[in-house]
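User: ABC-type oligopeptide transport system, ATPase component, Furfurilactobacillus rossiae DSM 15814:
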Amino acid sequence: MSLIEVKDLEVHYPIRSGFWNRVTDEVLAVDGISLDIEAGETYGLVGESGSGKSTTGKSIVGLEKPTKGQILYKGKDITKPRNRHELDYNQDVQMIFQDSLSSLNPRKRIEDIIAEPLRNFAHLSKDDEKLRVLQLLDIVGLDADALYKYPHQFSGGQRQRIGVARAVATNPKLIVADEPVSALDLSVQAQVLNFMKKIQRDFGVSYLFISHDLGVVRHMCDNIAIMHRGRIVEIGTRDDIYNHPMHIYTKRLLSAIPETSVEHREEAREHREAVEKEFQENQDRYYDKDGKVLPLIAVTDTHKVAMPQDEVDELQREDD
Ligand SMILES: Nc1ncnc2c1ncn2[C@@H]1O[C@H](COP(=O)(O)OP(=O)(O)O)[C@@H](O)[C@H]1O
Ligand SMILES: [Mg+2]
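Assistant: Predicted structure for ABC-type oligopeptide transport system, ATPase component:
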């Protein structure tokens, strides 16, 4: 059994307008997605801004109420608050946000910020609590003098590490990390990602790693789902997505990975332009007449893509 099974998840937001503020339409933020997260793995959820990634993440931690579908944990549907309570779900599943300056309370000291989940769930003595907080700071490479400081006294990278320390405080099974390094410089990104990987090795936690950038998740993820317009356009292992991408939208995201070596920059730009041209010319073959993402078709046991069967066959013929 997978750690988490998301089944046909839909989250619609009402759009209100007019004098009576009536519901006149809805945003299909998440429009029917399914994925399974295994214990100890990193699952990548990737797509451009507005594709429904955060809404999916928030539904999984129980911060957003789905319109439809199920999220199973230990065989129970945690979209029902009663089941979340019964399973201690809020202890087992934690979230890290992109913007640590707004997600960490600016008026609280680091000691209290990191201890907060412990106070909710662990009920330790004062001394044990302090020991645990010191241990957590050490895990993310921060000194003991951080205890008495406030969030604004740290750099962005240090604050993300504090967010990681708080998220792992209760020994969760899953951490939903929503664009955890997107606001950081490249060198600092690598540092935070390394701490996250180390924590995974030491504690066996799973991550749902949300990013708009396929470059960032390349070395993190075991499996990846590519989201567009509230649906999954392609899903597979890291090898499926990076080495055998099939959907035109996945190819476009891959071509958008920033090229770090100066020598290849020109080449990368040309490639990006070619992919963009192909996207503009052929994208309607990959979406229905209303622009909706097509149903997923299995290409292999691990790899699924949202395109017509005859296009899949054609691409596979070209491959042989
Ligand atoms: N609380 C909300 N009310 C109405 N629309 C929302 C709300 N949250 C998100 N949306 C809309 O849902 C869509 C998906 O948003 P989101 O899940 O934040 O995407 P992503 O994280 O991929 O950028 C967007 O069109 C966004 O504007
Ligand atoms: Mg988001």
